[in-house]
User: What shape does this take?
Amino acid sequence: MTETPRTVPGRSAPLAGRTALVTGGSRGIGLGISRLFAELGANVLIVSRREPSLLEAVRSITETGVDPGAVLHRVGKADSEDDAHASVALAVERFGGLDILVNNAATNPYFGPLVGISRSQADKTVAVNLWGPLMWVQAAWEQHMREHGGAVLNISSTSGIDVDVDLGWYGVTKAGLIHLTRLLAMELAPAVRVNAICPGLVKTDMSRALWENGEDGVAATMPLARLGSPRDIAEAAAYLCSDAASWVTGQTLAVDGGYLVRPSA
Ligand SMILES: NC(=O)c1ccc[n+]([C@@H]2O[C@H](COP(=O)([O-])OP(=O)(O)OC[C@H]3O[C@@H](n4cnc5c(N)ncnc54)[C@H](OP(=O)(O)O)[C@@H]3O)[C@@H](O)[C@H]2O)c1
Assistant: This one.
């Protein structure tokens, strides 16, 4: 599906003058968020592990008319403290601050029953999905947000709410991220708002195994009868990170095509 830039009459750049950092912003949901934020006027720093994907992401965002100077990339890992601090420092240095942090990168190295997961798989999932977001918040807080305020958005999952068999440990980390969101919202208020989104099944590389052999059948189980797109998540992200949500913190919004309210099997 081709995603067209959003235009809002009289309010076309609600993120103008803001700087956003998006972890895992080179593909999928993170790219969708980076693209929409740039279209809405923000400076965006995209961080992920592989430079070719980053370069392609920057190209695809700027080719639609976004100012090339407004989109930066940096190679970095979500579970690296050095990368967290250096990436925030880069945003501050190049754009003058960091107003929005989107903790989007995540991993799921294991699919199967909880009793079969190894220690290294479990540790890696916690490091990227749970410790990572907290560490990036620490870096943003220390270098800019404590003094200047800001908004944090954590990308969790419906697997952090529902019982998705075979996605168990990933779901545990995503449930933890929802709780972390609530705790940080209390701890960092009133300077920084902290919210979360729980995407349902969105058509990306990460979820490919869940939809590529029968997308129509999967869509038919969803109340809104289709899989999500990165743009669906980005629209909610733009709301939660903009002044339109200036009285919203500690909340988790499911953007899932009705998945969580479907009749149980
Ligand atoms: N797709 C879904 O159905 C779905 C549903 C619920 C929740 N979510 C959540 O949405 C978020 C994005 O998922 P997605 O489906 O968009 O995934 P994706 O298409 O696989 O994209 C993942 C992005 O994160 C980067 N990345 C992966 N591991 C990283 C790491 N350790 N450090 C830094 N960057 C890393 C990837 O680039 P590199 O590989 O180059 O690093 C890529 O830019 C995740 O938090 C995921 O749990 C997705």
